[in-house]
Input
Amino acid sequence: MSDFLDFLIRLCLFCGLHSLLAAPRTKARILEKAGSSFQPFYRLTYNLFSLILFGWVMLAWQSTRVLFVAPGLWSLLLHGMQAVILIAAFICLKQTGMGAFLGTDRSQNDNDLPFITTGCYSVVRHPLYLLGIIFMLLNPVITTRWLTFTLVTVPYLLFGAYIEERRMLNRWGDRYRQYQNQVPFLLPSRQRD
Output
């Protein structure tokens, strides 16, 4: 098997398992089998499993061709912009509850999370997805592996945002519909209704 195919299979496997384990039905089935005492640990276990699986993906296809390197100062500028993106993502995560997101705050489960429409969430409905996409696009060194990773991950994030929209509509109903009418999906807009 070629390194490219190995990497692609691993990445697609990661995307599939990551989505499957995040799905409410899958989570409910796992909790049914594991028992309700496992519920406070589900999010943390999910994140640790995802981290290990992502590491396994990134171990594949180590030697790839360099397609582009931003020259000199541009490279520093792009790294600086990536640092700003990471700080913005941290601010967004802090706003929604870092402990709840990571799974370290066992006093909150997914149903206890508040409906947030301020801060990062007043600019776009899915700021973390947007920031993740921008981070990938700002990489100053583009290899064949990074390009493949980006070409698979960007549609995966867009699909994830779409699925999350459906979950939010099911959970919050008209309140979320009103939010959809006021705040853009993924791309910030100057016009507000």
